[in-house]
């Protein structure tokens, strides 16, 4: 009986169908690859996963005037604002990472990103300088949020990873056997097949190199090669040091591995800003960082591994 059951499972695994779909969401292209026992079941699961990503996009978009992030930026300094459980969870996680990193991760850097040209100026928003920080955000009971002063928060450095986590769970709930979701460098996968993760070379982004093999888990990569812009004679990235409000320069690629993509997404910013101070936070969240940079002496790329 057991042998027959095992043969049945093997036969069905061999006829499993993999499908790939992609949509523009979260300010990038979200690609979902999933395999199941029938094309129909895979299509339904992928559609549900995209619905979850779209929900996070609607709730946490900085640009959309009716998102919960916009509502917080508009009203939370005057009175507590109630948000969804999803936004609350992301804010709570952001707070924990900010505390662990002594403020190297901070969602209140939106005014700086606007000044540098990475975020648009918004009409009807209270004026906010660059002196506020994560400590001015208070999470109250019943999913309510209050700002101690005028702030503008931006969740793009963590919400994208959260959307990937939710979408992966949606696929699992539909019985998907294996899947991979990639949202602009924020990736999570599961299944029995190992996959090679490639990253772009920081000074030659048209070229990719194999970084590691991964079967299950999350990996997020941040670099400035496509998002950089010139500001006052320097090429800068949207990776901003919250303590100095200065943007990181182009020059390295940071990849973080963690169980949750939300965690990996956020921690790439900390490692970028100050690798020497990121070890404690990486350990707390059981994460590993890989920093790729070009050796100035010979032009070859090198990789620093925080686990070694």
UniProtKB/TrEMBL annotation:
<feature type="binding site">
    <location>
        <position position="265"/>
    </location>
    <ligand>
        <name>Mg(2+)</name>
    </ligand>
</feature>
<keyword id="KW-0808">Transferase</keyword>
<keyword id="KW-0274">FAD</keyword>
<dbReference type="GO" id="GO:0046872">
    <property type="term" value="F:metal ion binding"/>
</dbReference>
<keyword id="KW-0285">Flavoprotein</keyword>
<dbReference type="Pfam" id="PF02424">
    <property type="entry name" value="ApbE"/>
</dbReference>
<protein>
    <recommendedName>
        <fullName>FAD:protein FMN transferase</fullName>
        <ecNumber>2.7.1.180</ecNumber>
    </recommendedName>
</protein>
<comment type="similarity">
    <text>Belongs to the ApbE family.</text>
</comment>
<feature type="binding site">
    <location>
        <position position="157"/>
    </location>
    <ligand>
        <name>Mg(2+)</name>
    </ligand>
</feature>
<dbReference type="InterPro" id="IPR003374">
    <property type="entry name" value="ApbE-like_sf"/>
</dbReference>
<dbReference type="InterPro" id="IPR024932">
    <property type="entry name" value="ApbE"/>
</dbReference>
<dbReference type="GO" id="GO:0016740">
    <property type="term" value="F:transferase activity"/>
</dbReference>
<keyword id="KW-0460">Magnesium</keyword>
<keyword id="KW-0449">Lipoprotein</keyword>
<keyword id="KW-0479">Metal-binding</keyword>
């Amino acid at each position: 009986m057991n042998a027959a059951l095992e043969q049945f499972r093997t036969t069905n695994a061999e006829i499993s169908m993999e499908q790939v779909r992609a949509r523009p969401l979260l300010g990038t292209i979200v690609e979902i690859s999933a395999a199941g026992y029938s094309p129909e079941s895979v299509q339904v699961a992928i559609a549900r996963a995209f619905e979850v990503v779209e929900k996070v996009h609607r709730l946490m978009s900085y640009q959309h005037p009716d998102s919960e992030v916009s509502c917080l930026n508009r009203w939370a300094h005057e009175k507590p604002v109630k948000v969804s459980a999803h936004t609350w969870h992301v804010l709570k996680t952001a707070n924990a990472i900010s505390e662990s990193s002594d403020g190297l991760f901070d969602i209140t850097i939106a005014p700086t990103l606007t000044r540098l040209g990475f975020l648009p100026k918004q009409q009807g928003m209270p004026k906010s300088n660059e002196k506020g920080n994560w400590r001015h955000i208070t999470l109250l009971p019943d999913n309510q949020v209050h700002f101690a002063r005028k702030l503008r928060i931006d969740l793009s450095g963590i919400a994208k990873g959260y959307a990937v986590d939710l979408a992966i769970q949606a696929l699992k709930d539909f019985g998907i056997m294996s899947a991979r979701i990639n949202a602009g460098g924020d990736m999570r996968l599961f299944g029995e097949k190992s996959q090679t993760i490639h990253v772009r070379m920081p000074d030659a982004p048209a070229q990719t190199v194999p970084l590691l093999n991964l079967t299950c888990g999350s990996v997020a990569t941040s670099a400035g090669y496509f998002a950089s812009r010139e500001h006052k004679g320097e090429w800068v990235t949207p990776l901003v040091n919250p303590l100095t409000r200065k943007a990181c320069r182009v020059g390295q690629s940071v990849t973080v591995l963690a169980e949750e993509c939300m965690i990996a997404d956020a921690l790439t910013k900390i490692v970028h800003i100050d690798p020497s101070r990121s070890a404690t936070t990486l350990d707390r969240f059981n994460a590993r960082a890989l920093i790729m940079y070009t050796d100035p002496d010979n032009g070859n790329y090198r990789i620093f591994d925080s686990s070694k």
